[in-house]
Amino acid sequence: MALDSKVPEGPIQDKWTDYKNKINLVNPANKRHIDVIVVGTGLAGGSAAATLAELGYNVKAFAYQDSPRRAHSIAAQGGINAAKNYQGDGDSTYRLFYDTVKGGDYRSREANVYRLAEVSANIIDQCVAQGVPFARDYGGLLDNRSFGGVLVSRTFYAKGQTGQQLLLGAYSAMNRQIARGKIEMFNRHEMLDVVIVDGKARGIIARNLVTGEIERHSAHAVVVGSGGYGNVYFLSTNAMGSNVTAAWKIHKKGAYFANPCYTQIHPTCIPRSGDYQSKLTLMSESLRNDGRIWVPKNLDDVKAIREGRKKPTDLSEDERDYYLERRYPAFGNLVPRDVASRAAKERCDAGYGVNATGEAVYLDFAAAIERYGKEQAKIHNISNPSKGKIYELGQAIVEAKYGNLFQMYEKIVDENPYETPMMIYPAVHYTMGGVWVDYNLMTTVPGLYCIGEANFSDHGANRLGASALMQGLADGYFVLPYTIGDYLADDIRTGKISTDTKEFEEAEKSVKETINFFVNNKGSKSVDYFHKKLGKIMWDKCGMSRNAKGLTEAIQEISDLRKEFWKEVSVPGGSEEYNEELAKAGRVADFLELGELFAKDALVREESAGGHFREEHQTPEGEAKRMKEFQFVSAWEYKGEPKDAVLHKEELVYKNIEVKERSYK
Amino acid sequence: MNLTLKIWRQKDSNAKGQMVDYKVTEISEHMSFLEMMDVLNEQLVGKGEEPVAFDHDCREGICGMCSMYINGEAHGPDRGITTCQLHMRMFKDGDTITIEPFRAAAFPVIKDLVIDRTAFDRIQHAGGYISVNTSGNTQDANAIPISKHDADEAMDAATCIGCGACVATCKNSSAMLFVGAKVSQYALLPQGQVEAADRVQNMVAQMDLEGFGNCTNTGACEVECPKGISLDNIARMNRELMKAAVK
């Protein structure tokens, strides 16, 4: 099947408006007869469910958590971008579009990104109207901060809990519709397959995670907003339950999977401390507004620090290497995430890592505390303030901005980051790759949509900070509700979809067979054993830098591990009860397939772009080298084993932005 | 560290539960409490026994999924954190740790340490929102300036993660801190004024219907709240309720 992105004709700034004027609509009376399933209730799924219900569709929403409010969007800290230009610093829709395409290393679809930038301002209006308590200045207007990879302040925030507040906003919009009976909410339910009838997505098979019951749910369209697949690495900043299962199941039923190798390794996370580690914790990128990143200049100092003979604060300014400021003077500590992560790895690989594992760099707030302290002393008319007073005043400002992050750091690491620099190291955070969708956010299966992090569309090979929240809400509040109407306009006479058909029966049977296999298999190894092994292969060979040899090995190793999994996995407990090991087994089975496709995609992509860094393709200075012939989206078609997957290419055309070398120097 | 764990095991909501003793060894003080539970579960799975079921997800203190009543305290002995942020350095070698689910009539046990907190969701359905359509046809976000103090206070109330520690801690199993936080967030913002009276009345009515107890001002909830939600929110809710009644 040839890929058709369905991008409308016309000038980029008019595409979305013209398109909305021309697409089919469903009249309000008919919407009452149409059902839509939404899988996942994070920013994308939650906002989509609320808006579709408000428009009049009957929505069934599914979440594996005990409440939609717990989806992992809640953990996003730093902020959400919008081209409001409230700061008057030269921002515009075009500039947000430009920054996002450039930040994505020219591997995203122009028209989608422009639309995203266009609706971004609406999101802020919408959320304020919903009662989201964004940070404000003393004049009562909204405050902004700056994020990596841009030269303006366009990020709106609610302390270090922006994702939480936006998700609770979407949750409140859902609650209003649940109360009206327009959304039927299925908590603690996991989607285990999509049901295709006559070529169209018509329902799902879900497991009730409390009773173990397998359920059939039908609808006229299915929307998957199930998040990213970072947990393929076992250790990531994702929630423990975050998984690829919904996205992978629809891939197996015909939805192409795009750019699986584009993964974001976030530069500012708390370094790992031991083998028992279950997850990694992010420290918001917003910290790079005020924190300076460094390692010692001399290896002797590194050794002394590791052995506890010296403290980081003992080192003078000229004994420190502020390597981002040194290498990228224009953007300094605010280079994009991929660049910052690789630079940290480069220093640590060269032996300059500052903790026992050798995998940590400093993020230092001393300069910011001093700067703010002096500013405050002026504001409060304190002449000749003492060092201590300056520190006290400055600390109060840093605490107001990042207090909850500092507290979180202290609880985990047991060190006070106001007194000694934080230690950070990159960790898997976000996946730009995902299910391929067209301009309508529809997958290659008619009636099957994919939104938010689960799709591939807007971030190219690297996502800029504060753009994930923007995309999730743009998809759910402002894009999908329009585009889905165009499709559903043909379904006004279809009537209720029956679940009593052979398609539902077959899908249910296959789901039950897999579950029965797991609970009856006489294996000897736990699910986590396999998940951890997979994670290690992924991190070592498909991590921050990749090469052909490692990727070829990874493909073989993952394939072997998958075979072993299906022989040796042991799942205690039964199928008709609450059984977390069983749920995990299903998720890891899918990760074991995705991981192989991931490595295959990374092997085929013989260039470096954004988060995908191939050692064979770098400039003499060690920067990523993009190749013109790879200016396409890799969309993989499922054909049984991952090794048999077929590659389809969507060529990327840039008419409104000049494709340049991406320089932050 | 070597530890003895006394854990509440209950097959399902209808079964009778009991405390069961387990031993774990070689626990690092840098582990989080849930990583210690992972070690125990890995041990149990290895022996072919059923692991202890407990709720958890983000493991960074924000999703509100983890619960656990540890040595008689919601989220354990540390302050300002959830169970997933509790670290083993708070315990000593040889300690015996008692682990129970959050207990309240409105939070039935589903299995072991997993509880049903959908009563909280139902309270939110009753009024935890501002009735504005999500179409984006709203006025410009800066059209109504909001005093920074009010916005900050609303934010402090809005940081509630809905974990239920307040209920588990309260001797009356009252949910007034939880409800007060939501009522306060909207009461402090101009956007929330239009529906203020209906909201507080409906949410409080639902809270009573769910079987949560009343507030007798012991302040235990505030102490145990991982997000430091203040008792002032309960006072504000009561004021709002009074205002609504005389309207």
Question: Which descriptors would you attach to this protein?
Answer:
heterodimer; A: alpha+beta; five-stranded antiparallel beta sheet; 17 helices; 14% strand; globular; B: 247 residues; alpha+beta; five-stranded mixed beta sheet; two-stranded antiparallel sheet; 7 strands
Explain briefly what this protein structure is.
Chain A has 665 residues and is of the alpha+beta class. Chain A is 38% helix and 14% strand. Chain A has helices spanning 15-22, 28-31, 43-55, 93-103, 110-129, 162-179, 245-252, 299-306, 323-327, 337-349, 366-379, 387-413, 468-488, 502-520, 527-541, 548-568, 580-604, and strands spanning 35-39, 58-62, 80-81, 155-156, 183-186, 189-197, 200-208, 214-218, 221-224, 257-258, 263-269, 292-296, 320-321, 361-364, 422-431, 434-435, 448-450, 632-637, 646-651.
Report on the architecture of this protein:
The complex is a heterodimer of chains A (665) and B (247). The longest helix of chain A has 27 residues. Chain A is globular and about 80 Å long. Chain A is an alpha+beta fold and 665 residues long. Chain A contains 17 helices and 19 strands. Chain B has 247 residues and is an alpha+beta fold. Chain B contains 8 helices and 7 strands. In chain B, strand 3 and strand 4 form a beta hairpin. Chain B is elongated and about 60 Å long. The model of chain B has no long low-confidence stretch (mean pLDDT 96). The interface between A and B is large, with 80 and 78 residues.
